[in-house]
Automatic annotation (TrEMBL):
NCBIfam families: AcCoA-C-Actrans. InterPro entries: Thiolase (IPR002155), Thiolase-like (IPR016039), Thiolase_C (IPR020617), Thiolase_CS (IPR020613), Thiolase_N (IPR020616). SUPFAM superfamilies: Thiolase-like (SSF53901). Residues 7-251 form the Thiolase N-terminal domain. It comes from Oceanobacillus piezotolerans. GO terms for molecular function: acetyl-CoA C-acyltransferase activity. CDD domains: thiolase (cd00751). This is Thiolase family protein. The lineage of its organism: Bacteria, Bacillati, Bacillota, Bacilli, Bacillales.
Amino acid sequence: MGNRDAVIVEAVRLPVGRRKGVYSDTRAEYLLAAILKGVMDRTGIDAGLIDDIIVGCVTQNEEQGNNIARIASLMAGLPKDVPAMTINRKCGSSQHAVNQAAQSIISGDCDVVIAAGVEHMTRHPMGSDKVPEPEELNEKYEVVTQGEAAERIADKWGFSREELDDFAVRSHKLAAKASENGAFHREILPIEVEKDGERILVTEDEGIRPNSSVKKLAALKTVFREEGKITAGNASQISDGAAAVLIMSREKAEALGLKPRAKIVARDVIGSDPTLMLTGPIPLTKRLLEKTGLCVSDIDVFECNEAFASVALAWMMEIQPDIEKVNPRGGAIALGHPTGASGARIMTTLLHELEDLDKRYGLQVMCCGGGMATGTVIERVN
């Protein structure tokens, strides 16, 4: 097959909804079907050309079970012979969907793949699919919550409560500025849903708090330790949402008259300490840079998922990027973290950031529950 490039042709996301917010009365399948149809409509691509659909979703039970990727693809009107599968790599699920789609294209197995993600945390609470860990695991590792892991990271790297809250305020301020300036307009697909018996059009992210301040956040109680540092204010929001990325071989995109917008340069995944759990982005970033031959200074935009402020701050302390390049439009603390959808949401935002800034390289990393991380480097195509 020779060397094949996997390129992003389109990327789109729904506005992120708050827990018990605008999407409360809307099933997850509808959100996913809407974004699958939306990413195709934006390019005008014949749905019959799609070789596969890969969807990230973490809590695969009830409405999100039964291979939601296949259910939603049929709801979206895709031909019955277009296959679809649902994968779970925790918070990195739909980023891994992007990476897996790229792998299938580079290998020559596919030419056109939709990588997407969905999570409705209101209707399917995080952990509602959880069962007690086997004793064998408990004998090998101390099993703690992600929140406790975030507390331990804050302790290990020496972050104060005020530093965590200050980072959280930064996220809200940047997201609010981007929203007010219309920076999210191109990447968001408005969606009409029913809420409390009325039809409403959702056009903006629901979780951004423009008036957030360190003083306000300081009043919040800690969640995981009585004398801890992690609060609802300096952690990612529980959210609902969906996003999709259309990936093709460069040859197929050009044959269809579609402009490649970014090339997927490198993909990787790593395991990390399952107790400290959320530190994987640090070694993974170093490995991605080594793989590509790039330096930290070569990356124009970094997207490090804000699962908790302590996670992002520890990553920044170790990697030493220019902070102005990190999550320039805010992150999950402000925008929300619909777990299975976040990877594709962040990739969508990263692509648009590079285009709007007229920059070249973007690097995305995400920590994953259980001690893993997913990573991707993209290069904008002029």
